[in-house]
Amino acid sequence: MYCRKCGQKIKDGAKFCSKCGAPMTVVPVVKQTPEEIYPPKEIKEEYEKPKKSILKIIIIILGALLLISLIVIFIILKFDLDSAEHKITNSNSDTVQQDTTEEDESTENTATSRSESQVNEVFDYINNDTVNLSACLTTDAYETIHSEDGTFSFAYPKYIFNSAHLENGTYTFEHNNGVDVDYRLKVYKENNSGDPVSNAQSLYRYFSSSLYSLYYDRISDSTDSQGMSRALVAGYYDSAETDGVYIIAANDGTENYILEFEYYDNDKSDQYKDINYVVDCIYRYCSFSGTTYRPRTFSQFAVDDMGEKK
Question: Which residue, of 61, 98, 155, 191, is most buried by count of CB atoms within 10 Å of its CB?
């Protein structure tokens, strides 16, 4: 056996170490196999694995950071290059434009003038610099228009408007006084299927809700011989009651037929002034207004003579 203090080999059964004198207790010698003294390779690798995993993670992170850095550098360089090319392109473009500016402006002005001319050539009497209501006081002072699809007709006063156009079935006539549009006539159709009476009531609510005040309104509670029900709305957009509007809105169960005439009213109290006669003629010339009377003269209008039936 061996001394537990100094490791000296002593005889079995000795009570003291012959070298250091330490008291002896019996310590059996256990022989260890090499595998017990030196752990197998698998166990050793288990100790080494965490170190290798951490190293791999560090390498991956560094690689990712390097890749991101390269991408950022590439984007910055590309942006600078694109900016330089853009400046060069703009410079060249400016040079070309400078050489052709006069020619382009001339072409554009010619095209604009031609386009406006073509629009106004579709309609007669669209060259009024000023509004001449007194010239609109006869029944022949109105130009009749039939829609392209033949479903309605109307007439516009010849001596009010200075522009007009037809777009997607909508007729628009306007007078611009140099500041804004003070007279506008707009006639159009729009799809709206359903019960004509209910549709007419909806049209009434829609148009009347946009007005400051009403001076006349009427709603059909049935359909007429045309299968139409309609709403008539007349009033003012503003509190001063100078921006007047007269609206005819009819429905035949499949489509709305709308006429809107906006005008300037300088005297609400005068019921027989010129603009009121113009409104009366527009109403009577409109095929979907529901009137049973022909257009009347100003003299008849001034004395409330309803004129002739159709």
Answer: 155
3-state secondary structure of 122: coil
**Lookup: tokens for 230:** 């309609």
Q: Per mean pLDDT, which range of 116-120, 182-186, 194-198 is the poorest?
A: 116-120
Digit-coded pLDDT (tens) for 27-57:
454 455 555 555 555 445 554 555 667 877 8
Find the DSSP H helices in 122-238: 196-208
**205 versus 3: which is more confidently predicted?**
205
Residue 300, judged by CB atoms within 10 A of its CB (0-12, 13-18, 19+), counts as middle
Residue listed under structure tokens 């139409």? 228
Answer yes or no: pTM beyond 0.70: no
Q: Which of 188, 194, 198, 203 is nearest to 258 (CA)?
A: 188
Residue 186: in which H helix or E strand, if any? strand 181-191
Q: Which two tokens stand for residue 172?
A: 């628009």
Closest by Cα among 202, 195, 206, 186 to 228: 195
